[in-house]
Amino acid sequence: MAFKLNRDNVCARKAWSSHVLLDNVSKSFDKVRAVSGLTLVVEKGEFFSLLGPSGCGKTTTLRLIGGLDRPDEGAITIGNEVVVGEGVWVPPEKRGVGIVFQDYALFPHLTVFKNIAFGLKGCSPKELKQKVMELLEMVGLPHMAHKYPHELSGGERQRITLARSLAPSPKVMLLDEPF
Protein backbone atom coordinates (compact mmCIF):
# COMPACT_ATOMS: atom_id res chain seq x y z
CA MET A 1 0.00 0.00 0.00
CA ALA A 2 1.45 3.39 -0.98
CA PHE A 3 1.54 6.13 1.62
CA LYS A 4 -0.92 8.95 0.99
CA LEU A 5 -0.38 12.39 2.44
CA ASN A 6 -3.27 13.77 4.43
CA ARG A 7 -4.54 16.52 2.13
CA ASP A 8 -6.24 18.25 5.08
CA ASN A 9 -2.82 18.92 6.57
CA VAL A 10 -1.46 22.40 5.73
CA CYS A 11 1.91 20.84 5.06
CA ALA A 12 0.42 18.29 2.66
CA ARG A 13 -1.06 21.03 0.49
CA LYS A 14 2.48 22.31 -0.17
CA ALA A 15 3.99 18.84 -0.51
CA TRP A 16 3.52 18.56 -4.22
CA SER A 17 5.88 21.50 -4.85
CA SER A 18 8.30 20.92 -1.98
CA HIS A 19 11.66 19.24 -2.17
CA VAL A 20 11.86 17.93 1.40
CA LEU A 21 8.77 17.33 3.47
CA LEU A 22 8.53 16.01 7.02
CA ASP A 23 4.95 15.26 7.99
CA ASN A 24 4.34 14.76 11.73
CA VAL A 25 7.69 13.01 12.27
CA SER A 26 8.62 11.73 15.74
CA LYS A 27 11.61 9.80 17.08
CA SER A 28 12.38 8.54 20.58
CA PHE A 29 15.46 6.90 22.01
CA ASP A 30 14.42 4.72 24.94
CA LYS A 31 12.14 7.09 26.87
CA VAL A 32 13.64 10.33 25.54
CA ARG A 33 11.64 12.03 22.77
CA ALA A 34 14.27 13.56 20.45
CA VAL A 35 11.82 14.76 17.75
CA SER A 36 8.12 15.23 18.44
CA GLY A 37 5.51 15.68 15.71
CA LEU A 38 7.80 17.73 13.45
CA THR A 39 6.23 19.03 10.25
CA LEU A 40 8.28 21.16 7.88
CA VAL A 41 8.58 21.96 4.20
CA VAL A 42 11.81 22.89 2.42
CA GLU A 43 11.42 24.15 -1.13
CA LYS A 44 13.84 23.21 -3.92
CA GLY A 45 16.86 25.52 -3.86
CA GLU A 46 16.02 26.80 -0.38
CA PHE A 47 18.67 27.04 2.35
CA PHE A 48 17.01 25.92 5.57
CA SER A 49 18.55 26.00 9.07
CA LEU A 50 17.54 24.16 12.22
CA LEU A 51 18.53 26.18 15.28
CA GLY A 52 18.30 25.19 18.91
CA PRO A 53 20.22 24.18 22.00
CA SER A 54 22.32 21.05 22.25
CA GLY A 55 20.18 17.94 22.53
CA CYS A 56 17.02 19.39 20.97
CA GLY A 57 16.87 17.00 17.98
CA LYS A 58 18.66 18.87 15.18
CA THR A 59 21.09 16.05 14.34
CA THR A 60 18.37 13.43 14.81
CA THR A 61 16.20 15.29 12.28
CA LEU A 62 19.04 15.27 9.74
CA ARG A 63 19.66 11.57 10.39
CA LEU A 64 15.96 10.87 9.81
CA ILE A 65 15.97 12.74 6.49
CA GLY A 66 19.17 10.97 5.43
CA GLY A 67 17.83 7.55 6.38
CA LEU A 68 20.37 6.83 9.10
CA ASP A 69 17.58 6.54 11.69
CA ARG A 70 13.94 5.48 11.28
CA PRO A 71 11.20 7.68 12.69
CA ASP A 72 8.69 6.14 15.08
CA GLU A 73 5.87 8.05 13.37
CA GLY A 74 5.26 10.26 10.36
CA ALA A 75 6.40 10.45 6.77
CA ILE A 76 9.33 11.95 4.87
CA THR A 77 9.25 12.89 1.20
CA ILE A 78 12.25 13.90 -0.91
CA GLY A 79 11.37 15.32 -4.31
CA ASN A 80 8.21 13.50 -5.33
CA GLU A 81 9.18 10.25 -3.60
CA VAL A 82 7.97 9.14 -0.19
CA VAL A 83 11.12 7.73 1.43
CA VAL A 84 9.53 6.98 4.82
CA GLY A 85 5.87 6.30 5.41
CA GLU A 86 3.39 3.59 6.16
CA GLY A 87 5.00 0.45 4.73
CA VAL A 88 7.68 2.49 2.93
CA TRP A 89 11.40 2.61 3.72
CA VAL A 90 13.94 3.81 1.15
CA PRO A 91 17.51 3.04 2.32
CA PRO A 92 20.00 5.90 2.71
CA GLU A 93 22.02 5.04 -0.39
CA LYS A 94 18.89 5.32 -2.59
CA ARG A 95 17.73 8.73 -1.32
CA GLY A 96 20.13 11.03 -3.18
CA VAL A 97 21.13 12.81 0.04
CA GLY A 98 24.62 14.10 0.87
CA ILE A 99 25.50 14.48 4.54
CA VAL A 100 28.34 16.35 6.25
CA PHE A 101 28.59 15.50 9.96
CA GLN A 102 30.27 17.40 12.79
CA ASP A 103 33.14 14.88 12.89
CA TYR A 104 33.71 14.99 9.10
CA ALA A 105 33.81 11.14 8.78
CA LEU A 106 36.62 10.90 6.24
CA PHE A 107 38.20 7.50 5.59
CA PRO A 108 41.63 7.75 7.30
CA HIS A 109 43.26 5.13 5.06
CA LEU A 110 42.30 6.89 1.81
CA THR A 111 43.88 9.95 0.23
CA VAL A 112 41.84 13.11 -0.22
CA PHE A 113 41.39 12.18 -3.90
CA LYS A 114 40.10 8.69 -3.06
CA ASN A 115 37.84 10.03 -0.29
CA ILE A 116 36.12 12.33 -2.78
CA ALA A 117 36.03 9.66 -5.51
CA PHE A 118 34.49 7.09 -3.14
CA GLY A 119 30.86 7.90 -3.97
CA LEU A 120 31.33 8.25 -7.71
CA LYS A 121 30.10 5.22 -9.64
CA GLY A 122 30.01 4.55 -13.36
CA CYS A 123 32.60 7.17 -14.35
CA SER A 124 35.52 6.53 -16.65
CA PRO A 125 38.91 7.13 -14.99
CA LYS A 126 39.23 10.38 -16.96
CA GLU A 127 35.76 11.60 -15.88
CA LEU A 128 36.46 10.58 -12.28
CA LYS A 129 39.71 12.55 -12.18
CA GLN A 130 38.07 15.58 -13.79
CA LYS A 131 35.12 15.55 -11.35
CA VAL A 132 37.35 15.12 -8.27
CA MET A 133 39.70 17.90 -9.38
CA GLU A 134 36.73 20.23 -10.09
CA LEU A 135 35.46 19.61 -6.56
CA LEU A 136 38.92 20.19 -5.08
CA GLU A 137 39.09 23.49 -7.01
CA MET A 138 35.63 24.42 -5.73
CA VAL A 139 36.72 24.01 -2.10
CA GLY A 140 40.12 25.65 -2.76
CA LEU A 141 42.27 22.58 -2.11
CA PRO A 142 43.48 21.16 -5.44
CA HIS A 143 47.01 20.82 -4.04
CA MET A 144 45.80 18.42 -1.30
CA ALA A 145 44.68 15.54 -3.56
CA HIS A 146 47.44 13.14 -2.45
CA LYS A 147 47.36 13.94 1.26
CA TYR A 148 45.67 11.84 3.95
CA PRO A 149 43.06 13.18 6.40
CA HIS A 150 45.50 13.20 9.34
CA GLU A 151 47.72 15.59 7.35
CA LEU A 152 44.95 18.21 7.06
CA SER A 153 43.74 20.93 9.39
CA GLY A 154 40.19 20.77 10.76
CA GLY A 155 38.98 23.34 8.23
CA GLU A 156 40.60 21.46 5.35
CA ARG A 157 38.99 18.18 6.49
CA GLN A 158 35.66 19.96 6.61
CA ARG A 159 36.03 21.22 3.04
CA ILE A 160 37.11 17.79 1.78
CA THR A 161 34.06 16.23 3.45
CA LEU A 162 31.86 18.80 1.71
CA ALA A 163 33.49 17.97 -1.64
CA ARG A 164 32.98 14.24 -1.04
CA SER A 165 29.31 14.80 -0.21
CA LEU A 166 28.80 16.89 -3.36
CA ALA A 167 30.60 14.39 -5.64
CA PRO A 168 27.58 12.21 -6.52
CA SER A 169 25.42 15.32 -7.16
CA PRO A 170 22.86 14.68 -4.41
CA LYS A 171 19.30 16.01 -4.59
CA VAL A 172 19.60 17.25 -1.00
CA MET A 173 22.61 18.31 1.11
CA LEU A 174 22.44 18.04 4.91
CA LEU A 175 25.10 19.88 6.92
CA ASP A 176 25.35 19.14 10.65
CA GLU A 177 27.03 22.13 12.33
CA PRO A 178 29.20 22.85 9.29
CA PHE A 179 30.79 26.07 10.55
Roughly how many Å is the radius of gyration? Answer: 18 Å
The amount of helix comes to: 25-40%
Count of runs of 4 or more consecutive helical residues: 5
Number of strands: 7
User: Which structural class is indicated by helix and strand composition?
Assistant: alpha+beta
Which CATH C-level class of the largest domain is it?
Alpha Beta
Number of domains: 2
Domain ABC transporter: 20-179
GO molecular function: ABC-type ferric iron transporter activity; ATP binding; ATP hydrolysis activity
Keywords: ATP-binding, Cell membrane, Ion transport, Iron, Iron transport, Membrane, Nucleotide-binding, Transport
InterPro entries: ABC_SmlMolc_Importer (IPR050093), ABC_transporter-like_ATP-bd (IPR003439), ABC_transporter-like_CS (IPR017871), ABC_transpr_FbpC (IPR015853), P-loop_NTPase (IPR027417)
Explain the overall architecture:
Helices cover 27% and strands 25% of the residues. By secondary structure, it is α+β, with helices and mostly antiparallel strands. It folds into 2 domains: 10-95, 3-Layer(aba) Sandwich (Rossmann fold), CATH 3.40.50; 112-175. The relative contact order is 0.15.
Write the layout of secondary structure elements.
Layout: H1 10-15, E1 18-29, E2 32-43, H2 58-66, E3 73-78, E4 81-85, E5 88-89, E6 97-100, H3 112-117, H4 125-138, H5 154-166, E7 172-175
Parallel strand pairs: 6-7
Antiparallel strand pairs: 1-2, 1-3, 3-4, 4-5
Helix pairs in contact: 4-5
